[in-house]
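Q: Sequence in, structure out?
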Amino acid sequence: MGVTFIDVVHFDDLNGPNVRVLDDQPIQGNNTHQVLIDFVNGEQIIQEASNTFYLTETPLIIFPNPVGSQGFVRIVTKEMESASPLFRLYDAKGSQVLRYQLLTTDDTIPTGGLQPGIYFYQLQDLSVTFTGRLIVIQ
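A: Exactly. Output:
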């Protein structure tokens, strides 16, 4: 399965060595951007694709979900009020099985040691708490 790219901007004539482009219609979640430069002599420069997460409609994304019991879950958030919001994970009985201070707006937490099952998460910031479900598979 191939990836399809669309032109965000196209320049026919550049008036200097620097170009800055802003994607003014990013999609919610993961956006992949790549630069392709075609020269008059037929040569090309292709930049490796880069991924950027945009959160405009939701304050956070937690993925993959389901996640493997020996994998990692990635948490991407908007800027939070506190410098380090607290992520907690609870099992089906309500026992806390994981506690993690997020250090950035794009953090990764290992799921090693978690048994397969349904878990409930809580991400707590200064004035707001986000909750959801995380499924751990073998």
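The chain is about 0% helix and 45% strand.
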